[in-house]
Structure formats: C-alpha cells, structure tokens
Write a structure and sequence with these properties.
The complex is a heterodimer of chains A (about 120) and B (about 550).
Chain A (H helix, E strand, L loop, with lengths): L4 E5 L3 H13 L3 E5 L2 H10 L4 E5 L7 H11 L5 E5 L17 E4 L4 H15 L1
Parallel strand pairs in A: 1-2, 1-3, 3-4, 4-5
Chain B lengths: L8 E2 L7 H73 L2 H5 L1 H14 L3 E8 L4 E5 L13 H9 L1 E3 L11 E9 L5 E9 L1 H9 L7 E5 L32 E7 L2 E9 L6 E5 L4 H92 L7 H29 L6 E4 L1 H18 L3 E6 L6 E4 H18 L5 E10 L2 E8 L6 H6 L16 H11 L3 E7 L3 E9 L1
Parallel strand pairs in B: 12-14
Antiparallel strand pairs in B: 1-16, 2-3, 2-6, 4-5, 5-6, 7-10, 8-9, 9-10, 11-13, 14-15, 15-17, 16-17
The chains are: A alpha/beta (about 120), B alpha+beta (about 550).
Chain lengths: ~120, ~550
C-alpha cells in the first residue's frame, strides 16, 4: 500500500533522520535532507513521490524551497511542517499548491496518512 | 450577583471621575471670584457714592428749610415783641389804662401785624387793669403766675403754647415797663398759634419734610406730620441749648437716612425741628438702591449661569480629549502587549516545538523498535515509559499551542464561545502559580447558560486580567470562585469572586480610571481601564463590589 518514496527536509537532522528511520520501519522508502540546497540536489538525481518540508530553515527557507520545487516539479505533492503551531495560528501565507500543513511535533501516523493521501491524490 | 447596592460600581469611567468634578468646581469658583469681586466692589462703591450724594442733598435741604423757617419765625415773634415794646415805651400807663387808649393800641397791633387775640394791661400787683379781647378777663389777678414773675424779672416773656381760658392754642407775649416811680406794669398779648402754624404750611415743602416746634419739655407746639397734633409728646430727645445755631444730625435705620435739624428760636421757648423722613429724595434713593440690587442680582445670576455653562462645556471638551487620548493609549498599550505576546509566543513555540518534535520522534523510534521486535527485553516497561514520554510531549505541545493561540488574535473577530472552556483556558495560564500558592480556583456554570457570540481573544484578555488581579489579591491558600450564569435570557454573566485583601471605597471609585494603580511602580494603571473598555466594546458591562479585608467580586455581563 505504502509503496512510495518520500524526501523529508528539515534543518534539524536529529528530527528528520529519526522520522526517516521510523518511516522505514513502516516499509516506506524515505530519505532526508538538512537544507534546501541539498534537497534540490537530491531531487535532481532521483524522483520522489512526495516531499515534506519544514517551513523555517536557515539559508533557503521552506517557503522559497517550495517555490523552486513547484517550478521544477510542478506535479510533486508537498507537505509542510512547522514549529509555529496549528495551521490557523500560522501568520505567514501558505503557498498555493501545498498539499497540507502539519504542526510540530508531528504524529507519525498522521504524517503517513497525509503522505498516502498526497500520493494517492497525485495518482 | 447579590451585591449590596451601595458597593456596586458600574461606570462609564470618564463620566464619573472625581477629577473632573473637582476641576469643574475649581474652575467655577475661581471664575465666580474673578468676575463677582469687581462687580461687588463697584456696586458697593456706587452705593456709597450715591448715599453720600443723597445725604449731602438732604442735609442741604434740611439746612435751608431750617434756616428759612427759623428766620421767619424769629421775625414774626420779634416783630410782635417789638410792637409791644414800642407801645409801652410810647404810651404811659395812664394813657393805656384809659378805655380808648388800650383799645386803640389793640386795634393798631391787630391791623398792623395780625395774630393778636387780646391785650391786657396788668399792674405790678398782678391785677389786670384793662383788658381788650373776646374774653371776660378783666380784674383777673396774675400775681401768683410764674409767667408774671418771669416778666417782672426779665422784662419780656414769651410763653409756651397753651389752651388756657381761650380754649384754642395760643401763646402770650408780655413786656414790662417801669414807671418813674419805680413801680411797673405789664402789657400782655395773646397770639393765635395759627400765626406761626401758617408759616409751616406756607413752606410746606411738598410734604417732603416735617417741620414743627417743640418746647423745652419736648411737647409739640405745632402740629407734626410725623408725631401728631399740638400738645402731643415728641419722642425725640430735646436738644441742648446751643444759642441760635442750627444743628444737623444724621441717623440710619432700616436702610433709611434721617437728617434732623434743630435750632432754638431766639427769645422764645420754642425749638424748631426739621426732618426729612418723608422726603421724595429718600424715595428716589430707595428706588436707586432697589435698581442697584436688581442690577446686582441679574448680573450675578447671568454670570453664574454663563460660568456654569462654560465650565460644563470646557470640562466636556477636556473629558472628550482625555477620552480620545486614553483610547489611543489603550490601543497602543493593547497592541503592544498583543504584539509582544505574539512575538514571544511564536519564538517560544518554535524554539520548544522543534526539540519537542525531536523528543517525540526519538521516543517514537524507541517505541517502533520495541513494537517491531517481539523479543525486546522489558518490552512492556519500555513501551509504558515511551508512552509516558509521548504523553508529556503532547501536554507540552498543548501549552505551546495555547500560548500561540492567545497571542495571535490581534484582529477582532466574533465566534461562538463556550465560556467555561474559555475560562479554563485562561486559568491554564495561572494554574501553576495557583498550585504553588495553594489557591483554589473553582468554576461553576449555572444551568441553561446560553452560548455567546463574541471575540475570543478580547474575552481572554478581560478574564486573564481580572483573574490575575484576583490571584495577586488573595493570600496563599486563598479562594477564587468563578460563576457563569445567565441573569436574563439575553445576557450571560461571569462573576469572579476572591477572598483577598479587598479594595477601599475610595480606590473603588477610581478603579477603572486610566493610570490609577495601587501597585505603585509595578502597575501601568491601564489594566482595568483597558478591561473596562473591552467589555464596553463587546456591548457588556462590568461591575465591582468590594469590602476591605473580605474580598472583591467582579461581574462581567455580556449580551448572549
């Protein structure tokens, strides 16, 4: 069922590596990047079915990365995560085309559910 | 909800502030002082000026009348006295004692001078030798009469006015003539009082002045307008003899000026008295005085009305300006506070949420490892611990989200609100302090309290402010009771009652006034003022009742 490949991008390596490992525990192919540029580089070498992007990152921010990804991979579903609380609490505009938005800390079950929906929707 | 009525304050804060009442009072009093003082001084000055002028005029008039009348009276008396003296000097006793002699003399006197009623010739024994007149007085003996002795000593005599045998008021003039033999005789004439009286009527001064004669015993010798007919007792004190000088004196009573003039009439027992009591001048003075009083009254009333209206208008303008300023300050304070809370909340949330997420994922990974490995040692115990970690993470996460939710609501928007949930959220902020200080916070909701459509963020502000105050007011182990009720079908009330130190009656009056603080340098004095304004903006009302040492109850009534 969960046969898709996900790329998780967050500057907190501890978080993103653990999340990746946990996804793998559940049979989901996942990789991670700790910066926007690393993510762009990875995506140029390998296609992913879904990306999960942290909103606030040093250097290339999550929002800027989303814009680049949308340009380079227009059909790629993107899920954003943030430490700024519930979606309604966020004070920045969520770019159009982002599949969903999850507050930190993220429940693994919720994340998988959202990714499945995103990939399914794409399919 | 059962407040003793006198303790309850429900205010539009600016309208009932003692500061404005005090300001208005000071303005009114100062303005009244500045405007009325010159007016009163000027009026008093003119009053005295007018009074002085009037006095001078009355004095002058009285003096004129006194001197004219005195001259006339003295002339009349002197004329008659001279006529009699001439007669006794020209005619001898023998000539006068003949029938023809005295009659002729009497007729001459009567024709030339008038006023003579009769004429008698009396010898040195007091016996009336001859008498010409309408009465039977021949052979009357006057030897024992005091006047006879007086004339024999002083050569002339003028009597008081009396009735005597003649039965009408008259007085007598008697002159003594010594014979060559050393003996003497007296010529005695009665003069009708009408002779003198006429003078008072001819100079009647339009009844403005009262002029009359009195004798040395204070008995009226002529009629007085003021004191009645002749022979009446005049209540005025008999003035001391001062030669022929005219004396003026003034007296004031009941606002009336009385100028009294008197003078002794030479060679007679008469004292001429002139007074102005019925003077038209006095009437004009009284009219002037009334005019002055009216002028003063009308001016004072107009000034008072103008000052009060100006004071009201000015205080209203100042109040309005203050209100605007306060509103602005409130907005600035509120916006600053919200912005600060928002910034802090976002920072805290982000900084805490990230490590929380890591803890969450690490714990999750641990759980995964144990879950997917059936043979993991102490599996149950580890799973339980991990679940506990995850539960704590979730609790922390709720706190950060609540903080975010509180700070972010800068813009007002209305939504359906369940008051108990909202109050529980607010209490969440003070829960730790309450726990540490063993303060018991109870929330009770009455039955059938309707939901409320209002602004969540602003209501949170209101309740947080009041509950924070309550926490500050109670001692450790104190009690805060919150009751949600519906006093009417269209209102919802929240009363927050503490058993803290209470608020004094004086402070209670000012509690919603901007910049009023009992916290000294630790308070801005804007908290309750802002709270009051928010409640008003939400269409509600805030009341407070308090007793020193017993506690305070705030009640917020909101439209359902």
């Amino acid at each position: 069922m969960n046969k898709f490949c996900a790329l998780l991008i967050d500057d907190e390596e501890e978080l993103v590596s653990t999340l990746t490992e946990r996804l793998e525990f559940r049979g989901i192919e996942a990789e991670y990047a700790v910066s926007g540029s690393e993510a762009i580089a990875k995506m140029r070498t390998k296609p992913y079915d879904v990306v999960v992007v942290d909103m606030k990152m040093p250097g290339l921010s999550g929002l800027d990365l989303v814009k680049i990804l949308q340009k380079e991979h227009p059909s790629l579903p993107i899920i954003m995560i943030t430490g700024h609380g519930a979606p309604a609490d966020e004070q920045v505009e969520i770019p159009a085309g982002v599949f969903d938005y999850l507050p930190k800390p993220v429940s693994i079950e919720v994340l998988i559910k959202k990714m499945s929906e995103a990939v399914g929707g794409k399919a | 909800m059962n407040h003793p009525e006198e303790d309850v304050i429900s205010v539009a804060p600016m309208a009932r502030i003692p500061r404005y009442r005090r300001f208005r009072r000071i303005f009114v009093l100062l303005s009244l002082f500045v405007s009325l003082t010159p007016l009163l001084i000027m009026t008093t000055f003119y009053y005295h000026l007018d009074q002085t002028a009037l006095q001078a005029e009355i004095n002058y008039n009285v003096s004129q009348i006194l001197s004219n009348t005195k001259r006339t009276l003295e002339f009349i008396i002197e004329e008659r006295l001279s006529a009699l003296t001439l007669m006794v000097n020209q005619e001898s006793f023998e000539q006068l004692s003949g029938e023809e002699g005295l009659l002729k003399a009497f007729q001459n006197l009567k024709n030339s001078f008038g006023g003579f009623v009769d004429l008698g010739l009396i010898d040195s024994d007091g016996a009336q030798h001859h008498y010409i007149g309408p009465y039977k007085l021949l052979n009357q003996n006057y030897n024992d009469k005091s006047w006879f002795h007086e004339v024999s000593l002083r050569n002339i005599y003028i009597s008081d006015v009396f009735m005597g045998h003649r039965n009408f008021p008259h007085f007598i003039i008697a002159v003594k003539k010594e014979k060559r033999s050393g003996d003497f005789y007296v010529l005695r004439a009665s003069i009708d009082l009408a002779m003198l009286d006429r003078q008072f009527h001819t100079v009647d001064y339009n009844r403005e002045f009262d002029a009359f004669l009195i004798n040395k015993d204070g008995v009226l010798q002529t009629e007085s307008v003021e004191y009645g007919p002749v022979f009446g007792k005049c209540p005025l004190e008999v003035p001391k003899y001062a030669g022929g000088r005219e004396i003026l004196s003034q007296s004031h009573s009941n606002g009336k000026i009385t100028v009294l003039g008197h003078s002794y009439i030479e060679k007679s027992p008469f004292i001429l008295v002139v007074m102005n009591q019925r003077s038209s001048l006095l009437k004009s003075w009284l009219t002037t005085r009334m005019d002055l009083v009216w002028f003063l009254l009308v001016s004072v009333v107009l000034i008072i009305i103008t000052i009060i209206l100006s004071a009201n208008y000015m205080v209203a303008l100042i109040r309005e300006a203050d209100l605007k300023r306060t509103k602005l300050l409130h907005n600035i304070e509120y916006t600053n506070k919200m912005a600060t809370i928002g910034r802090m909340a976002a920072g805290v949330a982000h900084e805490i949420n990230n490590p929380l997420a890591i803890i969450n994922e690490k714990a999750g990974l641990l759980k995964d490892m144990v879950t997917y490995n059936e043979a993991y040692p102490h599996r149950e115990k580890v799973l339980k611990s991990v679940d506990s970690i995850l539960g704590s993470v979730e609790r922390c996460s709720k706190v950060t989200h609540r903080l975010l939710g509180f700070g972010r609501r800068l813009d007002s928007h209305r939504e359906i609100i369940d008051l108990e949930t909202l109050l529980n959220e607010v209490i969440g902020f003070i829960a730790k302090e309450a726990e540490h200080r063993s303060i018991q916070v109870n929330i009770k909701t009455a039955e059938q309290v309707p939901t409320l459509e209002s602004d969540r963020g602003q209501l949170q502000q209101v309740f947080l402010n009041i509950i924070n105050n309550a926490v500050a007011a109670v001692a450790d182990g104190g009690l805060i009771d919150i009751l949600i009720d519906a006093p009417t079908h269209s209102t919802v009330s929240v009363s927050i009652k503490d058993n803290g130190v209470g608020i004094s009656e004086e402070n209670l009056k000012n509690i919603f006034e901007p910049f009023f603080s009992t916290k000294g340098q630790f308070g801005t004095g804007l908290g309750l003022s802002i709270t009051h304004e928010i409640v008003e903006k939400l269409g509600g009302e805030i009341r407070v009742s308090s007793k020193l040492g017993e506690g305070t109850q705030f009640t917020i009534i909101l439209p359902a």
